[in-house]
Amino acid sequence: MTSWLRTFGSVPLCLLLCCLVVAVCGEASSAGDSVCGSPSISSCTECLRRGPQCAWCFKEDFLDGAGPSQRCDLPVKLLRKGCEPEFMEQSEIKVEVNATVSSTQVSPRDINITLGPGSEASIIVAVKQLERYPVDLYYLVDVSASMQENLDHLKTVGVALSLRMTEHSSDLWLGFGSFVDKPVSPYINVHPSKINNPCSDYEIRCRPAHGFHHVLSMTGNMSEFTRVIKRQRISGNMDTPEGGLDAMLQATVCQRSVGWRPEAKRLLLLMTDQPSHLALDSRLAGIVTPHDGLCHLENNVYTGSTRMDHPSVGQLSDKLLENHMYSIFAVEKHQYQWYEELVRLLPGSYLGKLGLFQAPNLIELVVDAYKRLLSEVAVSVSVEDKAVSRYWVSVSPLCPSGSTAKDQSCSGVQPNQTVYFNITIGMHSCPDNGEDEDVTVLVRPVGYNESTIVRIHSKCRCSCGPTRHCNDDSQSPCKGTQDSPSQEQRPDHGLIKDSDRDSNWNCKADGSDVDCSGRGVCECGRCVCEQTRLGTVYGKYCEIDDFSCPYEGGLLCGGRGVCVSGECVCEVDWTGDSCGCPVSTATCQSANGLLCSGRGRCVCGKCLCEDPRHSGDFCERCPACQSTCQSYWKCVDCHLSHGLSQKKAGHCNNTCAPLVGYMDDVSGQAGEMLIQCMYISNDSCRYRFQTSSQSGQTQLHISTRPECASSSRLVGTFLSVCALTVLCGLVAVAVSRLLLQKRHLSREGAAEDGGYHCTGKDLSYIPTTNEKTVTYRRDCPPDRPLEMHIQVPKMPLGDPWQY
Q1: Where would one find the signal peptide in this protein (predicted)?
Q2: What are the residues whose beta carbons fall under 8 Å from the beta carbon of 325, sequence distance 6 or more?
Q3: What are phi and psi of 340, to 5 degrees?
Q4: If I label 211, which of 247, 367, 390, 770 is the partner at 20 to 30 A Cα–Cα?
Q5: CB 410 within 8 A of CB 376
Q6: Residue 198 phi, psi (nearest 5)
Q7: Tens digit of each residue's pLDDT (9 = 90 or more) over 258-287
Q8: What is this structure's pTM?
Q9: How far apart are CA 767 and CA 754, in angstroms?
Q10: pLDDT, tens digit, for every residue of 85-97?
Q11: Which domains are seen in the chain, by residue range?
């Protein structure tokens, strides 16, 4: 086998690589676990039948004492349990492309695939459309009496069609054959006078009815074609349907008689004005033998017409594909619907509806059909009958630019363009006998004389390494070759007689009086450990299990590993006693990219801060650190005393952090890890500084711009505030005085207008008149009324009240 990539270097690499890509059904998931881990599995063959994701460990001491079902599991789990890859039996999936077979249209031509139960493989088949092909066109004409006029139109078709096809073909050859129906009753009139001349009632000389008559083999001589057509005569039959499909099959399979050229595009044109008989119709004539699909021409006459039934549509379809045929149906419009249903079942077929079978119409029909059929590229995939139920096939076309994908084909393909078909072949199951088998799958591009042969080898049996010993139930552990003492010395027990020999002599651990640690039974001198819902018990004496490991989150080994000999064997990315610690430190990366902000260590996926003052998921918080600006005051004061000079900064190494820098302004700096502080010097100036920590080292940045305030400025500010306060008080008093005066004047005006009526609620009223006269009147006795007048003078405002 050689690489196909060398042969087709111009084909896109991404598509060619798909030819060697093998897709395996199933994944290593919980579903895969349930498929592989079944207690009913007892042999390697049963394990591999579970699917391509399952593997069988044939290592002899693997999980010693455990049941055979424990040997079947996912490869990754078997590896964790201690089974090395060289001791694993898996479904073998392999694709080999044979690029030594040359081809111009279809590639590759030969592919070998190895599959196992439940597995699948994908290949790419490329079909290239050439620019010009030689064309073989065979006219298969219904010569019943109703086709007399149509037969006459064929006499002028040959030369005109040859000239027209020169635009599309490099070489056109024509052939001719005729058909009517099976020459038996009830399809024809079997009266002796009607057999040789079915048209005797019309005083016309007709030829006898026939199933198929090959008249002219393929030729490029158009004059010979025209001469043969002119010599043709009509025939006759009794029923309406004709034997068109029977004649089509003979014209297809009789390659040598018809003269089909291997390199040519083959067009089979059926001309009729009636529908065709189908399979089982021949029972009316007592013919029950199915058609064998072979050629039966003797002296160019179909001799099997009276012995075999009409072919089925499926049989005809297979023969058309097998012989690279395009079929064209030229029918009258009233039969169009019947043949439209037929064309759907025949790949590579074209239906033309003609009002009249005139020469121009026939020429256009052939030209249009040829262009249409060549522009549509499709493939047919067939599996051998013996294995068709055990395999499945999927086809996906990859059409070139400008064409359209439809089902399993591409339409509108131009010359020199290539269509790629992604074909996936999958295997359901092995044969009933469980043996390996070889199956052939044919990939046939419709109408092409080249095809791809896919040879599938199904791997159903286990080889289990060089020793071919799978350690399953198919190979019984109880054999006569097993070592067992006949007379031997047991420690401290003396000589053992044959009558005293016990079958469990090798099933007790040292210092134990219980067989198989009380968790199994001894068979043939070996422990067969019990199965429990908790897990697997194994070991030479059933002393080991896979469930006595730490749990995390309610899962054994946290669901991230397997329990082997009481210890968790973790997956690649996990560690710890219960597989609860990720190996990666990605969960400890802080926003600045440092591990735990440079202030701690990543332990089990979490930050462990080195300084107890720090906290947070990434040691990013330090509430105590933000209130310790005072701890840096001595350092800042030292640098201020040396004039903030880099040359003299070394004098402060004893009191300062290792890294000290100067900045014009630190107030604009912001960040999650920066702490802003302030220091007030002896001259009442404020110096801003900030602290930060990077990679665990403290840095100090001091501002070189102090914020100072003078004493004179403070006095001026104090006097200004006092003056402003006094001014505001005076303004408030003046405004109050004005409001009182305005209120007094308004009350005097009201008194002058009509007096003021005092109420008990207004006690602040002061009368404005000098006196007030109060009159009291007493009406009793009624004959002598009494009046009293009292004058109340106005009392000065400051005088005391006198009674």
Answers
A1: 1-26
A2: 252, 266, 267, 268, 319, 348, 447
A3: -65, -40
A4: 367
A5: yes
A6: -65, -15
A7: 999 998 999 999 999 899 999 999 998 999
A8: 0.57
A9: 13
A10: 999 988 888 899 9
A11: 56-90 (no CATH), 94-130+379-458 (2.60.40.1510), 133-375 (3.40.50.410), 638-662+674-705 (no CATH)
